[in-house]
């Protein structure tokens, strides 16, 4: 009885989070390769199959031969006369499995097959990781800051690492090794060294997914996050809408005593977030998008997809924001080009998409 081998393989399956049958198939494939290398010539066309008993761990090697009248290749064919000695009911054209297990093969071959088996296990584990994270593209995962390589950052995600390139980092984050952090999965690619997981903390959808985690009404599709605009690390605007008139979309996102929005702000390391109600009326939507500034009037030009906004003189700097930030975010959020004028007709133009 060699049930110790079966127990060892079961442990490997558990540790690698792989199906037990799949691990056995890797072992059998590795043993078949070892037999072919150690007992056959490189040019042999013999069909080899190795089986490992699921209960006892006993290893058996078989060669498959076609039953023929006249043998032309001993490695792949057997005469009908010889085949009848092994199996009375066999006929011409049948395929016969013949055991050819060498003495002590299980112990000897297992040693020589280790490299093949290890490679198969690595490939299976990589496929498992690739499939797992491919299904989580556009989702949030939690990991631990592992290390910096130059300006690039690697996040420990358990069985693999997430790659956080400089372009997807937020300068004001100041992340340190050992710190737990949420990241947004942008892409997963297969490489020779295994799957590479590209993650972000600057992506606009990161903000959206954070609100989905914190606001049950978004997860249940009562509240919809219809638009986002973000300058990572500084300020964001989101536009929300409720399918249920009894549910206040803005209030749901803010939460009791601001707890929900504060949880998002904390994860974004203090990034300011404006939550405004979505409105199908572009004039109303633009008015809200420019908050906290007070707007006097909005004139819509449908043909140019632009809007002229009048604000009181003392509200002009607030509407524009520091270095034009408030107006830029309003443009991104609404998709309209916005020209801001004071009521005394001083004009400031904010290009679409600035």
Could you please describe the fold and organization of this structure?
With 354 residues, this protein is α+β, with helices and mostly antiparallel strands. It has four domains: 127 residues, NusA, N-terminal domain (N Utilization Substance Protein A, Chain:P, domain 4, 2-Layer Sandwich), CATH 3.30.1480; 59 residues, OB fold (Dihydrolipoamide Acetyltransferase, E2P), CATH 2.40.50.140; 76 residues, GMP Synthetase, Chain A, domain 3 (2-Layer Sandwich), CATH 3.30.300; 73 residues, GMP Synthetase, Chain A, domain 3 (2-Layer Sandwich), CATH 3.30.300.20. The chain is built from twelve helices and 16 strands. The strands form four sheets. It has a five-stranded mixed beta barrel with strand order 5-6-7-9-8. Strands 1, 2, 3 and 4 form a four-stranded mixed beta sheet that branches. The chain is elongated and about 110 Å long.
Descriptors:
five-stranded mixed barrel, GMP Synthetase, Chain A, domain 3, OB fold (Dihydrolipoamide Acetyltransferase, E2P), alpha+beta
